[in-house]
Design brief:
- Four copies of one chain form a homotetramer.
- With 140 residues, the first copy, chain A, is an alpha+beta fold.
- Chain A has a single domain, classed as Roll (Thiol Ester Dehydrase, Chain A).
- Chain A contains three helices and six strands.
- Chain A has a six-stranded antiparallel β-sheet.
- The radius of gyration of chain A is 15 Å and the shape is globular.
- The mean pLDDT of chain A is 95.
- Chains in contact: A-B, A-C, A-D, B-C, B-D, C-D.
- Chains A and B meet through helix 2, helix 3 and strand 3 of A and helix 2, helix 3 and strand 3 of B.
Amino acid sequence: MMSDAAILDDLRRRVDDSPFHRGFGLTVEDAAAGMVRLGWSAKEEHLNLQGLVHGGVLATLADVAMGLAVRTAIAPGRRHVTIELGVHYLRPASPGDVHAVGRVVRVGRQIAFAEADVLDGGERLLARGSGTYSVTAPRA
Amino acid sequence: MMSDAAILDDLRRRVDDSPFHRGFGLTVEDAAAGMVRLGWSAKEEHLNLQGLVHGGVLATLADVAMGLAVRTAIAPGRRHVTIELGVHYLRPASPGDVHAVGRVVRVGRQIAFAEADVLDGGERLLARGSGTYSVTAPRA
Amino acid sequence: MMSDAAILDDLRRRVDDSPFHRGFGLTVEDAAAGMVRLGWSAKEEHLNLQGLVHGGVLATLADVAMGLAVRTAIAPGRRHVTIELGVHYLRPASPGDVHAVGRVVRVGRQIAFAEADVLDGGERLLARGSGTYSVTAPRA
Amino acid sequence: MMSDAAILDDLRRRVDDSPFHRGFGLTVEDAAAGMVRLGWSAKEEHLNLQGLVHGGVLATLADVAMGLAVRTAIAPGRRHVTIELGVHYLRPASPGDVHAVGRVVRVGRQIAFAEADVLDGGERLLARGSGTYSVTAPRA
């Protein structure tokens, strides 16, 4: 994936400016029009009773990757919000490096669709996400 | 909702024993066979750039409430894992109290289905979740 | 469920005017603001190799019930289209009477959310559906 | 896509033997391990009031393509049933040729995941589907 420097800078600034994104500890590794790759690390605090990464944090990663991918595909002033999120859990996730790749599937006038791969450090698919986003005009 | 004391104790112990659940800061408020109500508080660190609670944490709350509801409806030794999670976001969520009510819709031999309401402090519906869980025999 | 005669008439007329709905053989049994109940009958031609009603027709019933429920909750001239549909299959469906109850969960300015129960003749839950609908201004 | 003749024959026989599949009028165009491509034609009887193909039939096509793809990836005697189906509608579908390509994403011991593209005659993406399938031992 060939990153676009201006898009990458914009997303990194957004991640830094958002309390949630900053606290979640993720890195924007690559970004281009319609596509974003995030890096993140699953630690002890993300594990459930069975020693596996909780599904909620994988869903969060998928949603962030898809939302940022939508961000790269709409005009600067417009806003996007998640209206629907779906995740399929394909394999148990162990502590360590996790990546999430978000891709825009289609951007319409009011609705955008995106999908995400959540991968472990060896690029094995852990989860697949899909999301629907409402895209609206800038707040007056 | 009338809580069952033994079920409530069991779930509270599980939440305490899981690094993720403990760190997420949630409280099991009520629990009975097939039903769980959680309390949680959205703080500054959960907000996105628009000052709203990030969708990933609402998805997490829904998944936890549904997973614990499934827990109350299967035999003690059996294990459950999320295989699919879906969330519809109905209203923007502001900082403050949030509740999640998980309910089992059906428990089969290998598959359980659950649904969740995510509510604000005034019991307004913020999101609706649905999930599919694989239920398996105890690990040998 | 207490039907509203004007809403019921409007939906029955729409079902009659749509080639797909008419051919599918469904009946609008009850309708009120935000809620619709359909009747339908699963015959030999709807069965798969295992002698069970194909999941696609249950998904269709859920979508029709939700779409018509959304119809009752938006202004007459506005149009709605399904942007996302999800179905959980809870029990195998045998030939015979099937009902689908669609309910609006929330109607916003551009997006509506609905849910559906698909039931057998004995009111046992066969499937649960959820859907997201785009609501737009009348075509000029 | 390079078809496997034995797999293609097996799926065509199954489609012929199932009352629903036969009546729905679909053709298995290509098939290999983990992948199936179907052909179908949207006629007047599949159109809604707006003159567009009803979403339920596109959901049906997606489910059939995914279910047959799962079929190619499990042992002959085992049975699969849809436990969850999701569809995103990306573009309105007009009368004419429609294709559905189903792909297995992962097959586990009890659960299989698949995805589908629904395309028009010009290979434009109309809808994306995802599904979860329960895979069980042969009925005794």
